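=== RUN LOG ===
request id: a7f3
mode: sequence -> structure
chains: 1
length: 144
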Amino acid sequence: MNRACVLSEEVPPPAPRKTVRAFAERVLDALNAENRHITIVFCDNPFIRSLNKQYRQKDEPTDVLSFTLGETRRGTFYAGDIVISVETLEENAKVFSVGKEEELRRLIIHGILHLSGMDHATNDYEREAMLVLQEKLLKETAWT
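=== RESULT ===
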């Protein structure tokens, strides 16, 4: 059984925790993951900026960061943490003319794919295998 834990770092989550958790678990199921545990943390731009600077040497906020743990304990694989800036999520939704819920789902999927070992060199949604899969999962995985 896959499990997701949802936390907030001094910001309200952009959707009910129960909904976020259930969606993330459905994405893991769609990827045929088994006994996988992830944590999703919602934060503001200063928080994610500090992480981005510390771990990627980029002194700017970003929308989503993934931190792989990759540790198995008692039959459960602890994949790692996904950190999402609620502020940047909202900015992205406006810039890309999509709803906040759609952008939230996209960022959750994006983080899960990174924790699953996938990566992308560009943001080419038509050629990067990870991003193609991301958009496929976005269309096929129910929110509620």
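=== NOTES ===
The longest helix spans residues 100-115.
The first strand starts at residue 3 and ends at 8.
=== END ===
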